[in-house]
Amino acid sequence: MQQLLNKIHSNQWVVMGILNVTPDSFSDGGQFNQLDYALKHALQMQKEGADIIDIGGESTRPGAKPVSLDDELARVIPVIEKIRQYSDVVISIDTSKPEVMQAAIQAGASMVNDINALHAEGALDICVKHQIPVCLMHKQGNPQTMQDNPEYIAIVDEIKQYLLARADYCVNAGIHSENIFVDPGFGFGKTLENNLSLLKEMQQFCSLAYPVLVGISRKSMFLTLLGRDVEHRLVASTSAVVVAYQKGARFFRVHDVAETCDALKLCDAVA
Ligand code: 7PM
Question: Which of 236, 230, 265 is nearest to 15 (CA)?
Fold first, then answer.
């Protein structure tokens, strides 16, 4: 993890590969097949250039129902343990639940990615106790209803202020400032126009004191903008990463690791 922090803090890009372990991300049930698939996919993404694998067991799709603690633990912990048997790739746990954070850290995760920015009772305490890097994401509303009617007066200022206030709060609680990442939260209570504003003004987030994580991969804004189904959003997703990179973002959470790394290497070669 320290190596990865050094990389980001020295302005080099880092790619985080997404590993979803929600039931709808598997076609054939069976715990063994799921574990096997998850391991293969994680190792493949590492080979393709991912420095970190983000494991999430709670579907945060707009309209999604909350997942019980037991279900989420049963989904993610065996996967983390399995990956740990075969690889020392950095693992991030995508959760809002303190119990899942705790168990994931014990199983070998070394970063917390929380779309709820550590608001759950006990979440911040666990991250302080383990002195672990955290990603704090902005969202408006909750996954069930957030896309119904998002409203902002000045979206960039509002999100900047939120992220700064939240980061300050975490620093005061005992998180080291080098361990904090911020994320404007593409698609979380945002219209297409909102998402495009965030991308256009990305440099404003990148001038904050914390590295910015961009999670825009395959998001439904590309359905609204281009009419593309989820399996046809690679070009738009990768192009969005390039735009964000040119405006200063360095940390990218993506499904398509090899293609994203190609695009970023191209940018570096030009620069
Ligand atoms: C279904 C729909 C499953 C949408 C998952 C999603 C972000 C994140 C997610 C993000 C950070 C997705 C989302 N998005 N964490 N977790 N930033 N930090 O599209 O944008 O991957 S879940």
Answer: 265
Helix (H) or strand (E) holding 86: helix 69-86
CA of 270 relative to ligand 1 center, distance in Å: 30
Note the residue count of the chain. 271
Atom 17, ligand 1: residue with shortest CA distance: 215
CATH topology (fold) of 2-270: TIM Barrel (3.20.20)
Q: Which residue has the tokens 């995508």?
A: 94
Q: For residue 113, give the ligand 1 atom closest to its CA.
A: 18
CB 93 within 8 A of CB 100: yes
Domains in the chain: boundaries: 2-270
CA separation for the pair 90, 4 (Å, rounded): 8
| Known catalytic membership, residue 65 | no
Q: In the annotation, is 253 catalytic?
A: yes
pLDDT digits (tens, 9 = 90+) for 17-71: 999 898 765 544 566 688 999 999 999 999 999 999 999 998 766 667 788 999 9
